[in-house]
Fold:
Amino acid sequence: MNRRHFVHEAYNNGPSDEGVPAEEIDAALARFGTDHLTEREREIASLILKGHSSKSIARIISISPGTVKIHRKNMYRKLQISSQSELFSLFLSALSGIERV
Structure:
């Protein structure tokens, strides 16, 4: 599966032409965490939500994997979560309009 479609397929319960349009998901990714996270943390959150590993993120944005780990810890603390699955759940809630992050 293409990483770009990871969030879209999960939100729409699998591959489908129905559900939330990709543009809406991209817009939600762009605004996710704007009130709580730094620009770099939002960039990392977006890449995590697209299915990238810390090592992949480090390569993409030209920082060390250790720095990615620090950003993740800070991001999780600010969002009051403790795992990637909670980050994913928080994003899906924000996308659904249940909770704005």
User: Anything to note?
Assistant: Helices lie at 6-11, 22-31, 39-49, 54-61, 65-79, 84-96. The CA atoms of residues 61 and 70 lie 14 Å apart.
